[in-house]
Amino acid sequence: MIELLVNWKLLLAERKLSILILIRLRLERTSNLMFPFVQISSWHYKVCYSILEGKEGKLKLDFSAWRQELTEQKVKYPLNYKTFGEAIPPQYAIQVLDELTNGNAIISTGVGQHQMWAAQYYKYKKPRQWLTSGGLGAMGFGLPAAIGAAVGRPGEIVVDIDGDGSFIMNVQELATIKVENLPVKIMLLNNQHLGMVVQWEDRFYKANRAHTYLGNPANEEEIFPNMLKFAEACGVPAARVSHRDDLRAAIQKMLDTPGPYLLDVIVPHQEHVLPMIPSGGAFKDVITEGDGRRSY
What we know:
GO terms for molecular function: acetolactate synthase activity. It contains eleven helices and eight strands. α5 links the parallel β3 (about 105-110) and β4. The strands form two sheets. A six-stranded parallel beta sheet has the order 4-3-5-6-8-7, with helices on both faces. The chain has a two-stranded parallel sheet with strand order 1-2. By secondary structure, it is α/β, with parallel strands linked by helices.
């Protein structure tokens, strides 16, 4: 198996029988914490070409066994979340969107908790439905990516599942979807915080906040900034929903409205993405429960 080694400590901790082949242009720069079975000093692309030549240009990859393993693990350890009164769990919002689109929408995201929940709770039916910057962490990616999808795949349902922190970084693109009359739907999971950073603050820093609250400290009851006003300024229809019982109808209206639309979904900032592995940890250190409503 050939693997892109992003977190080698994680790999070695979990796969004790793996063979680690290190490819580096200058081997003298190799960390003394890495103990590869084989070290190769070369350009990476040359090594890849050599592998393909050894396979006569045909590298057949069979993922069926791995996919079967994933299916079994999903049944054994299903995702779950809690509900609290009339508050809208962000995971639930994505589940409802999935149901109403039958898993056929093209989904784009920004970066943060919403990005991970979109990966977990939307049941994609086919390739090329999922537009995200992944580990590059490009906040603000969601709306421009959705614009590209709407232009490239006319007639498809395109939804930008975004967070308020990411969305505000490219909010000016509301003007683009208006003037181009692109049917981009924006489902904004608005928790008034930089949710992913808040999760780490909750878990590992005793919930001490460091510029992760995005609202107005003088009036924390107010939804600030008012995303509906941004949409109004650009002539984009918009609505806000804050109660679970109203969510399904609000999403359906978003989908049924011709052209662009912004739905501001107010969600609790205490929600955590699970499972998660702490920094420097391995799979054995995985966290599977808890949220920002308790102390750590």
